[in-house]
Design brief:
The protein has a domain at 1-93. It is 35% helix and 23% strand. The chain has twelve helices and 16 strands. The strands form three sheets. Strands 1, 2, 3, 4, 5, 6, 7, 8 and 9 form a nine-stranded mixed β-sheet that branches. It has a four-stranded antiparallel β-sheet with strand order 10-11-12-13, with no helix packed on it. It has a three-stranded antiparallel β-sheet with strand order 14-15-16. A hairpin with a 2-residue loop joins strand 11 (266-273) and strand 12 (276-280). The protein is elongated. It holds the Pfam family Rttp106-like_middle.
């Protein structure tokens, strides 16, 4: 008696355990087993066909899938889930052109996966499995931004690849907005792949054009995006364009192309790239394209640190400010000169400074008038009892403001602040997102637990 194709059935009817249970109970004869297998194969082919079409009929069928699950127009979480399931099914149905095994992924899941590339999709799957991992399926045509940067604070040089699907780079700044799929972050070493790591029909070509993981993925990702008409280029950090003034003790011969910063209570890294500003690698990731930066201003400029506020144009006459705090003062000049001014970004902090000085001057004048009215006038018209320190009221006010800022800096505890950008966090999120960028290094016990 033929057996049920349970793997295909689970893939097709993912999210509907009631249907799977019914099929398993009813498949009590060879004829019924064959019929159910044919149904599963037919549904999988139809789903794959729908995902590759862009016409009204395909859109209507996707809406119907959402409605069948009780979600109008497929706009709720159920609709997003149906869309993800359809992409997963379509990706699994396509032949794998290139496979790279044992790649460390940090977002959206922290685990080692095999990365598979088909004609239309990039996806991750657990070693030995045939289906994509849930939520890690990306259509080549939908990748809007791709970045390649060194992983900060790792003794051995490693690189992160960061892929943003369309309309996900600014999601965390939009109140109530959610994306169907999260950005994708995976890490590769600076060395070349070990024998047997790369497989599929494209393995020989890959070996002839690349000798390191980086050259392999730069070639493969670019080639696959171009094959479907996506002109997105991989943007890499470049120390000749921007680098921090801080010396890296763990890699002293290499200039850091990032600066440390907090976003709310989360510590992370800022990369000032030719295409915009990237912040990572804690969830939610954020990339601000240059054409979306309305203005930049510097606040809380103290002796050792300063904050940077970026005003982001979200479209539809909406704007949002995101603040990056506790940036080292040594990087103030390079950020301002090498990035803000070089890209002709509007600096509104000057207006803020002028306003603060005007208010200080006005307050100083008011204080002087009160002193003159309440005390005896001296030969120079000054107020009686004024401290004999040789400073004007304005200078005293500025000195008092500086002393207050220095005290605030000494008392500052980034862990006590909420997320200033308004993004929400879960208590266990930092455990899920893998901490610092591309924390692909995992001990053997953790890998075994994940695989299980």
């Amino acid at each position: 008696m033929a057996s049920l194709d349970t793997e295909r059935l689970r893939l097709v009817f993912e999210g509907r355990p009631d249907i799977l249970t019914g099929i398993e109970k009813a498949a009590d004869t060879p004829e019924r087993v064959s019929l159910f297998n044919k149904i599963a194969s037919f549904v999988q082919e139809r789903l794959a066909g729908d995902s590759s079409q862009d016409g009204p009929a395909a859109k209507r069928r996707r809406v119907d899938v959402g409605n069948a699950n009780g979600h109008a127009n497929g706009t709720s979480s159920g609709g997003a889930s149906s869309s993800g399931e359809a992409a997963s099914t379509a990706a699994a149905a396509e032949p794998v052109l290139l496979e790279v095994k044992d790649i460390s992924v940090s977002i959206p899941q922290r685990k080692k996966f095999d990365l598979c590339m088909t004609k239309n999709y990039l996806y991750a799957r657990v070693s030995g499995a045939s289906a994509p991992a849930q939520g890690i399926v990306y259509a080549w045509k939908d990748i809007e931004y791709a970045f390649y940067v060194p992983v900060p604070e790792k003794t051995q040089l490693q690189y992160n690849y960061i892929l943003f699907p369309r309309n996900t780079s600014l999601t965390s700044l939009k109140a109530g907005a959610t994306a169907d799929v999260e950005p994708f972050v995976f890490t590769v070493p600076s060395t070349g792949p070990k024998p047997g790591t790369v497989g599929g029909p494209g393995a020989n070509t890959a070996a002839s054009v690349s000798d390191t993981y980086s050259s392999l993925f730069n070639w493969a990702l670019t080639n696959q995006m171009r094959s479907v008409g996506n002109r997105t280029s991989i943007v890499a950090s470049d120390a000749k364009v921007f680098h921090s003034m801080m010396r890296q003790s763990h890699r002293p011969n290499e200039k850091a192309v990032h600066v440390k910063a907090f976003r709310g209570s989360k510590d992370g890294y800022l990369f000032f790239l030719p295409a915009g500003i990237l912040w990572g690698f804690k969830k939610p990731l954020l990339f601000i394209p240059l054409d979306r930066i309305a203005a930049v201003s510097y606040t809380s400029v103290l002796q050792r640190t300063f904050n940077m506020v970026v005003e982001v144009d979200l479209g539809d006459e909406q704007a949002e400010e995101v603040e990056f705090s506790m940036i080292d003062q040594e990087d103030y000049g390079v950020i301002d000169e090498k990035y803000v001014k070089r890209h002709a970004l509007q600096d509104r902090s000057m207006a803020d400074k002028r306003k603060a000085k005007r208010e200080l001057a006005e307050n100083a004048k008011d204080g002087k008038k009160k002193g003159e009215a309440g005390g005896e006038e001296g030969a120079d018209g000054g107020a009686a009892g004024e401290p004999d320190d040789g400073l004007t009221e304005l200078q005293r006010a500025e000195q008092a403001l500086q002393d207050e800022e220095d005290e605030d800096e000494e008392d500052y505890d980034p862990g006590s602040d909420g997320d200033s950008d308004g993004s929400g966090t879960d208590s266990d999120e930092d455990d899920d997102d893998g901490g610092e960028g591309g924390e692909g290094e995992m001990d053997e016990d953790e890998d075994e637990d994940d695989d299980e």
